[in-house]
Amino acid sequence: MSSLRDQVLASVPEAAREGILKMALDQNITDPSDPQWGMVALAWSATESAGLARASLEEVRAAIAMIQDMIYKQTSAAGKDAAEVIKKETLESAAVLGKALTTASKEAAGRLAKAAAAQGPDIIEEWKWELARTVRAQTNKSSAMFAVAGAALAILCVGLGILLVKGFPTFFGLQLL
């Protein structure tokens, strides 16, 4: 009949045998029939399992860090894309407003010239004020458009900041930030 040590060593993979023998020697278990051989095998198995769990935990932590970085990069990229779209739309709107201002100014100048030819110097003064009012009105519209675009960009940036700081505190129950 084989000893308890031989039975324990036969029941574990070959790679584990050296670790079990070393652990038994560290605990002064040298008798092949000592009943503690089963406990040594259990202790070695628990130690190996803890090491594997620790390695798995490190892999999970690395994956979580990668998710945080990915969220940050994608949110930043989305913010930059949104800023570019707003900038483009603002520039296009400014160009349209500039054309409208030019057209309105030309129309007012044309009306001024016609009135001057038809009604004389008194009407010229009235049309000068009309031209100034038209230019001022177009300028106010342009300023309002820039203010709205600027406010939209500011709100977007603040929203993205809040999203980064407070919007992603957990991901499927795991603490991220």
Task: Describe the model.
The chain is an all-alpha fold. It is built from four helices and two strands, in the order H-H-H-H-E-E. It has helices at 4-10, 14-26, 37-119, 121-167; strands spanning 170-171, 174-175. The longest helix is centred in the middle third of the chain and has 83 residues, at 37-119. The chain starts with a helix and ends with a strand. The model has no long low-confidence stretch (mean pLDDT 75).
Mean pLDDT: 75
From the spread of the alpha carbons, the general shape counts as: rod-shaped
Alpha-carbon distance between the termini? 60 Å
What is the structural class? mainly alpha
Radius of gyration, in Å, reads 40 Å
Main β-sheet: number of strands, strand sense, barrel status?
A: 2 strands, antiparallel
Strand content: under 5%
Layout of helices and strands:
Elements: H1 4-10, H2 14-26, H3 37-119, H4 121-167, E1 170-171, E2 174-175
Antiparallel strand pairs: 1-2
Brief write-up:
This protein is mostly helical.
Question: Which key phrases capture this entry?
Answer:
177 residues; two-stranded antiparallel sheet
